[in-house]
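ok so for the tutorial part 2 we go from a plain amino acid sequence to predicted structure tokens. step 1 is just haveing the sequence, like this:
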Amino acid sequence: MRSHDPAAKGQRGYTPFGVEHAKGESRPDLKEFFQWGPMNASERGLASNILVPHIDDLDATVKSAYEKLESVGQNLMRAIALHLNLPESFFDTHLDQGHSIFRAIHYPGQKTPIVEGIRAAAHEDINLITLLMGASAEGLELLNKEDQWVPIHVTSEVLVINVGDMLQRLTNNLLRSTTHRVVNPPADRCHLPRFSMPFFVHPAEDMPLNCLDFCVTTENPKAYDDITAGAYLHERLVEIGLA
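step 2 — the prediction. this is what the tokens look like for a chain of 243 residues:
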């Protein structure tokens, strides 16, 4: 709790168990988490990270991981720009001053097994794309186009890449945000905790998320009002109980 700052709205440091909930849900997810922003946040005019000097090497390890994932995220967004027939550097300026988030999540073990329960309710991420490293236990499921929940098993050798709501808005639903959830394990493993570490690729807060002109057609009319990334982020933080 010495790393908990209520004024940070869950964007820096520790957020206690039972605070965040999915959009449209009243029951909180069964998790607690620690969150970091850019390693040079103060230089970008953003809130500084909350350091953890009492745990050996944690801050240095997080800094290294963050910077590697930030680079991977920027390269993936260049590939997405090319896929959309945009200039390869379309997202670069927005990401150079971006507000990406690295989150370490802990789902505690459960004393009483609730096999049909949900550790994190179905939701879509707020950001452009999410990079998800292999978790310590299974439970991640994605909703496919046939409305079926598909278990996603990942190892430490791969990243799962999800489209987020900001990219969905920008492309006017050409790229759809990935609906996902975390379900409870089998009864004999409910007592075990689960750890995961997603990296949320966020642009600078002044980036317009207005639907790209070529994504708006007679067959696909404009679905979203114009908004900036910062305004949209605040709107969503309110909806999930962090602001």
